[in-house]
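User: Fold both of these, please.

Assistant: Here is the first one.
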Amino acid sequence: MGTDRPWVAHYPPGVPREIELDPAASIPGMLEAACARFADHPAFSCLGRTISYRELDVWSARFAAFLQKRLGLARGDRVAIMMPNLLQYPVALYGVMRAGMVVVNVNPLYKAHELEHQLRDSGARAIVIIANAGAVLEKALDGTAIEHVIVTEIGDLLGVPRRQLVNFVVRHVRRLVPDFEVPGTVSFDTTIGHALRPEPVALRAADLACLQYTGGTTGISRGAMLSHGNLVANVRQINTWFQALSHPGEEIVITALPLYHVYALTCNCLAYTELGGHDVLIPDPRDLRAFIRELRRWKFTAITGVNTLYQHLANHPDIRSVDFSHLRLVSAGGMAVMEATAQQWAAATGTSILEGYGLSEASPVVSINPPEQKAFSGTIGMPLPGTEVALRDDEGRDAAPGEPGELCVKGPQVMSGYWGNEAASRETFTTDGYLRTGDVAVMDARGYFRIVDRKKDMISVSGLKAYPNEIENVVTMHPAVLEAACIGVPDPATREAVKVFVVLRPGMNATADDIRNLCREHLAAYKVPKHVEFRSSLPKSNVGKILRRELR
């Protein structure tokens, strides 16, 4: 099946079987071409401020020069970026890559031990961080290779006078910035407030661009090594797929998903940069009233999201006040789209959700439904141009036609492996070079795929990944807990919710709130168990391994 590609016969008109990729292709090369072509077009907007491609070009070049000439960082050094959707993110992202360095995307909601692991594993020498997360960084710094800390405030790049900044923060920031002490920090303004030019770096497609951390099948966070070629290839695959809907220099895309997540990184930031698109950044989509007020401001042509986002928007009473007449592309990934959500969205907006499938290790997009589709299909569509897919059984053989098998992928968007972890890389790839996704799928006669099950124990909470091992490790830190097991259970709001089963030590006590409070100290909020069940024992195999499948 991997080489036959029956889906190609059903591709949208004009979409080729393969994508040509220049060996010299790089993200900075793509950016520079876009900035030259669309210099005076709007590039990014956030919180009432818009920057042009000309400004993006100048500021990202200055940021690159600062890393090289003021901080003394070298080509290939890793630079972590830890912030929500703000104008500073694309400036830092493109600046790091223009300096020939490697971006390490970090969730700004991480707690100290989560951040510490990622910084240690990546060997990052510098971090660009939102001030709100400074106290977390302070706790995580020991034992890392971090030498330079660039701190950005919410109001940076917004043109807000300092005397108005206090009022601005009150309006836009829900909580105060906790006090923290990290010596030698540099302000974000300093990194672009100079006239230095970066030293040119000759990048090629094979050069590493980004470490995108993912838990894989084990729950141990690992850095997927995404090259410039991987990311450029996926951008070209996506933009070729949707070429009939796209008008370069005229697109306005709503970015509510966080840019540190690979979905928004590629499908919003990178893909729309190549198109000269205008990317509207939403820092906090949980504030639905403010989010919808922002939607009213724009004649937006595209939006990306996960099932939960579309569900909440479609059910909000203010959604009917939004003009959807210019909206041509509504894409969804990260988690399965529920049919009820698709129907509610269509009724509220008059548009259809196109569901796709991807994973961090594939930059991320593997497949998507065709743009001409007008009704919910329940499938993840067809593999993108240049992508080979095979369904394999547990012995690694091709599954029989119509039978389920593990979805295995090969293509120019697939990573080379995990950073510093050759054993995990070997386990993740088949002997003939396919990436094992851990998801079980079936294919119909047209080459459309449907996910039917998951080999992974990963839990998807509103599209965010939670891993049982990580949660179990925290729960068992409680002195009263003997052992614990974690699974995902269905949830109408988030698709899945975290449930933990706990066995207490004899004669000791703990409540569900005790368990949750411990988790809140060490885990991001979405990983905190919604359900806690106490049991006298847990099902185990004959070698003592806890059997999560029996708990499910």
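And the second sequence with its predicted structure:
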Amino acid sequence: MRDQNEYIEVVPDPERISEGLRDTGYQFHTAVADIIDNSISAGASEIEVKVDMDMHGEIFLAVLDDGCGMDREELINAMRYGSKRRTDPSSLGKFGLGLKTASTAFCKRLSVITRNDPAVAPLKATWDLDLIAETKKWELELGEPSQNELQLLERAAPNKSGTVVLWEKIDRLVREYSKPGGKPARKALERHVDVLKEHCSMVYQRFLDHTDMRARNVTLRINGQVLDPWDPFCLSETKKPLLEEKQKVTFGNMQEATFIARAFVLPRKDEFSDAEAARRARLSNDYQGIYVYRENRMIHGPDWMDMFRKEPHFTLLRVEFSFDHKLDEAFHIDIKKSQILLNEDLFEWLQKFLIAPRREAEQRYRSGRFAAASGVSVLLHTASNNAIHAKAGALKTANLKSVDGKTGEVTIENKYGPVTLKLKLSESTRPEELHVQPVEELVEGILWEPALIDGNQAVRINTRHPYYSKVYLPNRKSGVTVQGLDSLLWALCAAELGTVNEETKRYFEELRYEVSRLLRRLVEDLPDPDLMENENE
């Protein structure tokens, strides 16, 4: 029962509210996906998205489906901001706002043309934000579809139930160009459509994959192209998860529900069955992380949900986190169904779950990276070798005197006289590799050591030292930088051979060890180069 205070109804300003709801943070591909969600919730098996621009630069978008359609009351409810709850709680639609907010984030005129029975005339309802601003009223326009709109409906659902969602007055997608409808404007629109295709092939993968029994079959076309599903976990290659767990969650009034977590470690690029399979896997930093699925539709990711940073050595790790509508409240699903919030217990559980998969992914990546580094290094030092060879004769600091075949020790002579060293005598593995030689490992993990290659003063560089992977490899396309680094290390070796004696040789060894140790620490926080990122390298 109310008290004696005065109560008055304060109606929000229609223009301000309708404009304000345009800024809910949608991106184009997530907005269109919200419309597709409604089609799937309506039981559609055929969905088509058409996006086009006319010669004047006007863009229109239509989402067509052969779902159950709506009668007059259902249509009005669907167009209401904050429509009534769906009878099916597992529906991909959730808050009764997606159709409107997703659409008007990019357009000022939203129309829905629908029929739930081929024997009845199609219905049409329209929100026009310009009309709302003019009349200051929430006036939904009900009318008859145009001939073009009827053709779209017939295209989607010939002589059966279906729906068309139409965006017009699209003003927030492509910026204004000096020539509306020209090539630059069309290219910009094409880029948005390409992102939409990639997004939909990922988020609706289980629906689009007609061999996946977890979700019913849906065919989705975008501008005439039938979308293929994209499987982030590459089951044709991985076969099964590295780790899988089902976990019960208790929430609210002692309600229980279950989620599934599955961790997959993908093969390295060279381990895929063929080059095309490796290309489809999208082995890059961008696609590592947790993929969150609600009712078989991906709603979040891939990222590590603020647990870890994306780093190249976890490129091969992808994690599935799946749940149904029962956990919506527990996970605080947002209005765009694109984010979940984990409570502290679940956050810690996931961190522990990921310990072993992270270790395995890092080990597999690093073994592949060392192999890749060796492959890159084959040609990386060619220019340095040629440049040093041109001047090495004039810069020679010591001569080889003898080799002890039993101990492997070498006696050289420099300006201070003869000195016996444990010096690597090596043969060139390639004709031009006479002064700089990359090797997979050096004693005690040092970065470099002096050597003689085919009698030439040389430096051997450890490709497994983090300085090599974090400084050399990121600069592999800069010949000047690599040549500068090589020249420095070669000069240090030449200086050592030119000045070392029996008393100082131990100090030179300790110097190389200590500098290598310090460099290891100094580059700890530098990012690892993602050698698998660029397929052309």
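Residues 14-226 form a domain with the Heat Shock Protein 90 fold (CATH 3.30.565.10).
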